[in-house]
Amino acid sequence: GAVVSQHPSRVICKSGTSVKIECRSLDFQATTMFWYRQFPKQSLMLMATSNEGSKATYEQGVEKDKFLINHASLTLSTLTVTSAHPEDSSFYICSARVSEGGFDDEQYFGPGTRLTVT
Amino acid sequence: AQKVTQAQTEISVVEKEDVTLDCVYETRDTTYYLFWYKQPPSGELVFLIRRNSFDEQNEISGRYSWNFQKSTSSFNFTITASQVVDSAVYFCALKGDYQLIWGAGTKLIIKP
Question: How far does A103 lie from chain B, in Å, by closest CA?
Fold first, then answer.
């Protein structure tokens, strides 16, 4: 089956620094990747949709200047949390979609990245 | 508007009991997909099932079964003879126009 990896799996950083999270589709090309955020004991919240070679589409309320998304290739999307603060601490999950947005396309999820900002 | 409701925040049962997790959805689409995912403490989402709106047949996979009823807009999930390893948060989701609409999740605790 399709595999999506995320790196790192856990990261602790100091307040004010930036952190980059990578999402890779290992055995397929993903024209679209999604970035989710999950707070403890809550559901997944879609942050943005990223299409290869174009700007990401952010959901309402998500600061695009704070959460920089780059989808430079068909197998890699990155999320950079800039000037991180403790309230950015969360579990970040990416998913990758196999095809070009057909109705029955499938999303495959990465294992998640736990970010802790001290 | 599209919405997924998982009214059960947390369920606790003793091992070997059967347990049903409820999922009610709202959509105006005639064609849609419904999903169940398991999220163990490690955090990694585990895909369990995908069901399209045209297929109302119930599905059974080992100890897992799903009951899809369009008449009540429900897609319930039953675990038979629960085991401690089934302890996790379970999410129901609806495939919308281009994104997944997630329920709030149900935390399932299986006590030995």
Answer: 8
